Amino acid sequence: MTGRFRTEEDSLGRVLIPSDVYYGVKTERARQNFAVSGQTLGDQPTFVAAIAQVKKAAALANLDVGVLREPVADAICQAADEVISGLLGREQFPVDVLSAGGGVSPNVNVNEVLANRANELISGRRGYEFVHPMNHVNAGQSTADCIATAVNIALHQDILRLVDAVRYLAEVLEQKSAEHRESVKLSHSYLQGAVPVTFGQAFGAYLAVARRGIDRLTDAADSCLDVPMGGSVAGTGFGVGAGYLERIYPRLRETTGLPLRRHPNFFDAFQNGDVFQYISAIFKALASGLVKVAKDLRIMATGNHVGNGEIRLPAVQAGSPFAPGEVSPVMADLVVQVGFQVCGNDAAVTMAVEGAELDYNAWNAVIAKNLFDSAGLLTNAMPLFADRCLRGLEVDVEQTRHTAEASLGLSAIVSGVYGNDAGARVAQHAAQHGMSIKDAVVELGIAPRDTAERLLDPVMLADPERSSALLDTMVGEHRASTAELVRRLPSEVRLAIFQATVAVARADAVICRQEEQALSVVADALGLSGTPLPPVGRLPADLSRLDRSDRELVYACAAWLAGADSVTDEAEAELLAEFAEILGLAEDVAEALHAKVDALRAEYRQYVPRTEQLPWWEEFGELLRRLHDHAVQPG
Length: 635
Fold this sequence. Notes:
The chain is mainly α. It has four domains: 5-139, Fumarase/aspartase (N-terminal domain) (Fumarase C, Chain B, domain 1), CATH 1.10.275; 147-394, Fumarase/aspartase (Central domain) (Fumarase C, Chain A, domain 2); 406-474, Ribonucleotide Reductase Protein R1, domain 1 (Orthogonal Bundle); 489-630, TerB-like (Orthogonal Bundle). Helix content is 62%, strand content 5%. It has 25 helices and eight strands. The strands form four sheets. Strands 1-2 form a two-stranded antiparallel ribbon. Helix 14 (411-418) packs antiparallel against helix 15 (420-433), helix 15 crosses helix 16 and helix 20 (491-505) runs antiparallel to helix 21 (513-525). The N and C termini lie far apart (120 Å).
């Protein structure tokens, strides 16, 4: 050793190595050959420590079975401890993380560092006089089982750190969900306004992604505890004594502090990387969920007098120089880009797993690199996202409530209580006049203001249990109101309406099965269940003594039914003329009633396509209510 460099030699010749490093000729050649990624083994401290832990466990197991002498084993263990603690830093591990396949370069790098340092501990100088990198440090191992075991150990630890990061994010999301459990907003379907939800529910959905991620990651971390140490090259355990195999696992548990288990099938472990693909898929699923959260926040935060403006994100960095005062969603952007990278890493892992050939997957370097990279990116990004974006996020409660109340989607609630045509009417009226569904309900006379306020409260509608209970209550109240209207009609009027509908049904001289069912529904709505069909299709001759409004209602019901199929035939027209005479209605009154019925039907069909209309008898109670309101004082 002279000056700043020392000379070492192997079968390929001599190389110069910096005099202050512990690695040797094989590491130097790997450093020169494979410098492609800009990342070295030293940039993966968890992986380096894991390899050192494996080497220490192997030294202790070899000491147990008499392969190593105690001074050599002790020196290797002390050198390994220095690597694990970071005393021998990243500069000692310069091989590229994508060094030629199989993990040979990382293995020899650590072997040489440990051998030189152990030799120094024994003799006071570096070299391999007392401790050899292959004969002693690598005793009982192959690159295959050592590196595979170390990858599992490092990945297990990285996943546990990631779980902690996800838990931290989940805590912030849980706080936000509780804070805004009654802050209402408009949900979106196909990017169009839909129905009210709360921010608490939205954050609760984001929280669910984090919690699922924790469960999946915990399971993935456990899967890493099955390691193939002792499987040697292809899984046969070639060159490994039985005593060593019995001792290596207790020693691994001792050096790592982890409940490592012997892999049930060494051949499977060396050939198949589906466990790594599964872990990578979990990373990708978590990243995709976070991208969804981040992109949602970007959309909800769009402002500057345009866009949604539902939330305000913390200003952590000045925006574009082109737009002074702009607050860019930079932390959300960061998470999106991390997510893209994790998805790309997953693609690389997938290719490396499926690229395995015969008895060994030589592409574990790219698998490990991308898994470590994904775990690190996610672990680093989530606390930043939680602290610099989510924690300081503010909701514009007034604006979001106004938007929720203005949604045309609330017309679905109106449909649920008052019928599909009512919902369609208020939606179109609100859209045409630039008003809320609530105001349209009142203006169209569908419900009074206090009822509309009660029915269309967006906070209540966002609660599934409360909204379902209210909907049931409102439907019940509306039906009861309609039933009360019917009960208030004199029995003679109700019977006359029933007889009129029977007469119209018999206009073609036959009542089919469908008409029988329809008449049964009409009888129920009129409170006449069980009433036998009259023997002839005519009205009683003494109805002219009824109040004028009642006689008009009877006639309007008959006129509606006659035109229910869009055509009033000759027989039905004759019946209606006879009804007008029996009811004592002048010709101009009958015509006016026809006009009102036609207008009512046209209004109904204007809002509800014919293909979506229910048979008239299924909503006869509501029909009767509307005819009662319209068929009065025609002129």
